[in-house]
């Protein structure tokens, strides 16, 4: 692996080099992990806080891909270079992934100022690929000044992606039952901007009504403080109406953070990411441990037969790992 050549290609904005680099940081091969660390070390000093990182999520069917295409097109027309990381859920059985997001962004895929990378979540917590943070660094190293990260849906993925972006944008819909379901405590804590999508045609009135209800509830939650109150807007990714307003609110949130706040937020995210990498590496070492491999089948059979409880089985596997590690 010619890491120096790859770094030069990324800095030159070569799309092939960018693709190869993201494939490298997504790989779990030990030699690829070593090469990716070298690659990211070379790129890490160049990204700074100049690029705008935005996480985008919402309920299934909310129109995330359509909205992202509309937003991406709007941004490239304004002179930005946009990178999109669209994380698809992987099958828990086969590990396969459809990776269909790119096919739903036809216009943006053909835009020379945009780069779309569909990536399998590989079963990671929250559906966000382990390598998403590294992929963002690659895109920023290649000169993309806006990076959009699309998550797979509602749940733990929101918490995960909020820990790697500057602004978290939550898309919702009208006519989804009780509108307050869209602002459960977990979403309130991480959403920076909320947009009611598909506000077009005969759905526009309902969308505006839903936005007013959400905005009223948010004002009650955030009353009495000077914290950022997530604005609630309406938009239509299908026809592009309101997309520019949503982007302006993203910039407003970034301005609210300020340079100092943004640096502090990124530093905190790097610390959490450090521990995430430690947990990932420990899980890999546990999986490859000879001591664990020697008793894995035995423990599995005992658990399935009901002869061993899960806590006892976990203790036995960890003891086998610790014993082998001490000997090493």
Automatic annotation (TrEMBL):
**One Pfam family, short name please?**
MeaB
**Single GO cellular component term:** cytoplasm
Output one GO MF annotation. GTPase activity
* Domain AAA+ ATPase intervals: 50-226
Which SUPFAM superfamilies does the protein's record reference?
A: P-loop containing nucleoside triphosphate hydrolases (SSF52540)
Family designation: Belongs to the SIMIBI class G3E GTPase family. ArgK/MeaB subfamily.
This protein's name:
Methylmalonyl Co-A mutase-associated GTPase MeaB
